[in-house]
Specification:
alpha/beta; Alpha-Beta Plaits; TIM Barrel; 8-stranded parallel barrel; elongated; binds phosphoenolpyruvate; binds manganese (II) ion
C-alpha cells in the first residue's frame, strides 16, 4: 500500500499516520520528495480497509499496489532514483559508462585497459576477480590479488570500481576494494546473497537473470531495497531464448519497461547480451537511444588470448570510436556521456 501525504502534512501528522500503520502491522519505508512525502506500507493484508488510513489528517491518497514489488516500483518513488558514488551519478541526465576486461588477468593487463577506460572519459572500470564460469576447468579469476590490482589501477586513473560478488563470504573482502558490487545473472535469484547485499552501504548492480522475467528481476531488487540498501542499479544483459546465433537475446525493450515500472536506473550490457564483438557497437548505440542510464562494455587488447569472454571484447580503438558515437546519440536525446 502507498500512502501519499498532503503537500503541507506536518511532522506530527506524519508521525501519527506512521504509528497507525505500524499498529496495523505494516513496515514503513518513508520517501521524502521535493514536493511531498510518500509512505510505503509493506505487509500483505488482503482484507485491510484502506479507509482506516484515508481518514487520517495529512493523508491525500491511499492506494493498494498490485505489483508484488513495492520499494522498486515507480509508485513508491515517482522521480528517477539517482545513485551517487563519490563524484559519479548513475540515473540522472548523464549516462554512466563502465568498461574494462571480463577478468582481471595481470597487473599489466588491468593497468593498460584501465588507461583506455580513463582515456574514453568513462568513470567506472570493471573487471572480474571471482568469475562464475560454466566450466569448473575454466579460469576462475585471480581472487583477492585481482581485487588489489583492479583497485590500484582504478586509483591510478581516478576511476570507480565495479566487480562481481559471487557468494556471501566474499562480501567483506570485496567491500574493501570495490565501489559497486556486481551481482551476476546466475545469482539474481540467490536470495540469501540478495539479503546480505541489502545490508551493505555500497551500491549493487543487479544483472537480470538468464531466464528471468522483468517482474522476477524487480522482485530481486526488492530484496536488496527491503534490507535497507537503496543503491540498486539494474543491468539488462540479455536473456536466454531459442535464438542460437547470439549468446543471449538482448531485450532492448526491457529498458523502457523498467523505466515505466521502476525508478531504478538501468544499465545495458551489450557484451554479454550478444557475446559477439561485431554486434556490441550496434546494440550499445541502440541501448543509448532506448534510454539506458549507462552502458557496460568489455574490452581487451589481446582478445584472442583473453582468459574469459575474448570473442565479445572490443579492441581499445573500436571502443574509443564507439564512445564518440554514443556521445552523439546521447546529445540527440538530451543526455550526456
Ligand atoms: C560479467 O560481467 O563478466 C558476467 C559474468 O556477467 P553475467 O553475470 O551477466 O553473465
Ligand atoms: Mn564477461
Amino acid at each position: 500500500m502507498v500512502v501519499i501525504l498532503e503537500k503541507n502534512a506536518t511532522p506530527e501528522q506524519i508521525e501519527n499516520i506512521t504509528k497507525h500503520l505500524e499498529a496495523y502491522g505494516f513496515q514503513i519505508h518513508k520517501s521524502t520528495g521535493a514536493e511531498r512525502t510518500i509512505l510505503g506500507a509493506i505487509g500483505v493484508k488482503p482484507n485491510f480497509d484502506t479507509r482506516n488510513i484515508s481518514i487520517l489528517d495529512g493523508v491525500d491518497e491511499v492506494y493498494r499496489i498490485t505489483t508484488p514489488y513495492k520499494l522498486a516500483g515507480r509508485n513508491f518513488h515517482e522521480a528517477d532514483s539517482i545513485i551517487k558514488i563519490k563524484d559519479v551519478e548513475i540515473g540522472g541526465k548523464h549516462i554512466a559508462m563502465m568498461a574494462g576486461p571480463c577478468s582481471v588477468e595481470s597487473e599489466d593487463q588491468i593497468f593498460r585497459l584501465t588507461k583506455v577506460v580513463a582515456q574514453s572519459g568513462a568513470k567506472i572500470v570493471r573487471g572480474g576477480a571471482f568469475k562464475p564460469r560454466s566450466s569448473p576447468y575454466s579460469f576462475q579469476g585471480l581472487g583477492e590479488e585481482g581485487l588489489k590490482l583492479l583497485r590500484a589501477a582504478a586509483d591510478e586513473y581516478k576511476l570507480l570500481v565495479i566487480t562481481e560478488v559471487m557468494q556471501m563470504d566474499q562480501i567483506d573482502l570485496i567491500y574493501k576494494y570495490t565501489d559497486i558490487f556486481q551481482l551476476g545473472a546466475r545469482n539474481m535469484q540467490n536470495y540469501s546473497l540478495l539479503k546480505e547485499l541489502g545490508r551493505v552501504d555500497k551500491p549493487v548492480m543487479l544483472k537480470r537473470g538468464i531466464a528471468a522475467t522483468i517482474e522476477e528481476w524487480l522482485m530481486s531488487a526488492e530484496y536488496i531495497l527491503s534490507g535497507g540498501n537503496r543503491g540498486v542499479i539494474l543491468c539488462e544483459r540479455g536473456i536466454r531464448t531459442f535464438e542460437s546465433y547470439t549468446r543471449n537475446t538482448f531485450d532492448l525493450s526491457a529498458i523502457p519497461v523498467v523505466h515505466k515500472k521502476s525508478h531504478l536506473p538501468v544499465i545495458a550490457d551489450p557484451s554479454h547480451a550478444t557475446g559477439l564483438r561485431d554486434q556490441v557497437p550496434p546494440m550499445a548505440r541502440a541501448a543509448v537511444a532506448a534510454g539506458a542510464d549507462g552502458i557496460m562494455i568489455e574490452i581487451h587488447d589481446d582478445p584472442e588470448n583473453a582468459l574469459s569472454d575474448g570473442p565479445q571484447a572490443l579492441l581499445p580503438e573500436t571502443y574509443l570510436k564507439l564512445m564518440n558515437e554514443l556521445k552523439l546519440i546521447a546529445a540527440a536525446i538530451g543526455r550526456t556521456i
